[in-house]
Each structure stands twice: as C-alpha cells, then as structure tokens.
Amino acid sequence: MTNGTYLRYVALGDSQTEGIGDGDDTTGLRGFADRFAEHLTAASPGLRYANLAVRGRLAGQVRAEQLAPALALRPDLVTVVAGVNDLLRPRFDADEVAGHLEEMYAALTAAGARVMTVTVPDLGEIAPLARPIASRVYALNDRVRDAAARHGVTVAEIAAQPVATDPRLWTADRLHVSALGHARIAAALAEAVGLPGSDDSWTLPLPPRRAPGPLRTAGAELRWVAGFLGPWIGRRLRGRSSGDGRTAKRPGLLPLR
Fold first, then answer.
1. Nearest 5°: CA angle at 182, between 226 and 108?
2. Distance from C-alpha of 134 to C-alpha of 131, rounded to nearest angstrom
3. What pLDDT score does 82 carry?
4. Sign of the alpha-carbon torsion through 87, 109, 43, 4
5. Treating both helix axes as pointing N-terminal to C-terminal, what angle do 31-43 and 179-193 enclose, rounded to 10 degrees?
6. What value does the CA radius of gyration of the chain take, rounded to a whole number of Å?
7. Are 133 and 123 in contact (CB under 8 A)?
8. What angle do CA 204, 186, 193 make, to 5 degrees?
9. How far apart are CA 184 and CA 121, in angstroms?
10. 162 CB contacts (<8 Å, ≥6 apart)?
11. H or E element, residue 16
12. How far apart are CA 84 and CA 200, in angstroms?
C-alpha cells in the first residue's frame, strides 16, 4: 500500500470468489472479487489483481493450495472467503474450519497484508431445505468474527443485512449469489475498506415483489431438489467435486484491464 492506495490485491477462496453466478465458463466469470478489484482500481489505477480461488474447495484446501502462492505474490490487500462448502458436508466442525481460516489470517497479516472477509447469510432463508444447517452458519460466523478480531481482519457483515437473503441476490441453485449479489458483496467490501465514493447503499432492500403462492413454492422446491440438490449429493457420493481438474482463473498479478 502506498499513500493509502492498494497496489497488489489477491483473492483466496472457492466458487463465490471465482465468480460462479456472475457470467459463465463460456463468456467468462466476473464475481465479487473482480468487481471489488474494479472499485479498487478506480481509487488506485496502478492496482494489480490475482484470483487464486477454485470452485468446490473446502477451507482446508484453500489454505493448503492457495496460501503459499498468495504470500509469494506479496499482496498488500487480500480477501479470504471460504467455508460454505464445509457447511454442507455431513461432518462439519466449526472449530476446524475456523482454524484453517485463522491460519490464513495470521500468515497474511504477519506478512503485512490487510485482510478482509465476509460473514455468510443464513442459507435456510434462501433454501428452506437448508434450514437444519442454520446453527452451523451462526457458529462459523461467530468464529470468523472472533478470529478476525484477533488478527485485525476487516469483516464485511453481509449476514447482518436482511437484503442478503433476498432470492434475487441468488442464482437458481441457491448456493451461489447472482450478478446482483456479487455486486452487493463488492460494494460491501468497498465500504468496509473505506474506498472513496463507497457507502452503505448495498444494504438497501430491493423493490417489493409479489410473494409466490404455496403451489408455486412447492414446485420450485421440487425443481431445486431435482435440478441442483440431487446432482450435488450425487457428486458427494462419488467423491467428486465441481472443481476437479480446475486451476485458478487468474494466478498472477495483472492489471484489471
């Protein structure tokens, strides 16, 4: 960082940081990290940006695979967003997941980087069948806040805002945020880091919409189970991941454009 501006931004994480839900693999993924880099570039035209995230990665895999490359890039600003894939596993240990995150916070802050993260909205408010894991979400968010406080990590409190669970901020799979959701996260990070021109407008609710009736809601749940939950469970049973064979989309520090 020079004169209050950031020159090297590195993003670590899983599918959300990679940008799933904002574009596609044919036209290219954008995502909140790319969008946050745009905010940063407006304030720091010399910014270079790397994105090491790979979809499907657990928090331990993010630490094992992405921390060392991130440190080698000598970033002055880092986002670490991981743990949602862990929440969905049958055997979830909040302390273990938070431990991986805290190791990354500690190593990156010790290297002189400013580290940022976000809290996770209640997934049960987005997908009713995910309500049994609400306690996991709360447990992980509490541990993230505690670890962040210990290491001076900046937390963008996405989970605290009612708009975060508006279905329009999420894709049809209900696991990834939409382009609008990615834009809101990027704006939240911009405000949290105090970028010029940033404000709390990302917290504002969307215009009201008519609530779907019971039959439409039930139909949507069945389509979600058949189209997304079933295939996801199938991959888990086969020991497969959506990130198998994939590498980071932006492994080196480059100007945004």
1. 110
2. 5
3. 98
4. positive
5. 40
6. 18
7. yes
8. 95
9. 13
10. 205
11. helix 15-18
12. 25
Burial of 208 (0-12, 13-18, 19+ CB in 10 A): exposed
Q: What are the residues facing 24 on neighbouring strands?
A: 28
CB 134 within 8 A of CB 165: no
- Residue given tokens 């080698």 in the structure block: 72
Give the Cα separation of 200 and 90 in Å (integer). 36
Assigned token pair, 221 = 């749940």
Q: CA 217, CA 26: separation in Å to the nearest integer?
A: 31
- DSSP at 22: S
Return the closest-CA partner of residue 235 out of 56, 59, 79, 100: 56
Pick from 206, 244, 184: nearest CA to 35:
184
Is there a contact between 120 and 81 (Cβ–Cβ < 8 Å)? Answer: no
Query: Residue 41 gets which letter from DSSP?
Result: H
Instruction: Tell me what pLDDT residue 129 has.
Output: 64
The pLDDT assigned to 213 comes to 66
pLDDT digits 0-9 by tens, 83-127: 999 988 889 999 999 999 999 999 999 999 999 999 999 988 887
Other beta carbons within 10 Å of 72:
9
Indicate the SS3 state at residue 223: helix
Amino acid at 108: L
Residue segments in the chain with a per-residue pLDDT below the cut of 50: none
pTM of the model: 0.90
- Specify the DSSP class assigned to residue 122: -
Structure-block tokens of residue 65? 């695979």
And the tokens for 120?
């996770």
Per-position b or e across 128-165, b if 16+ CB within 10 A of its CB: eebeebeebbebbbebbbebbeeeebbbbebbebebbb
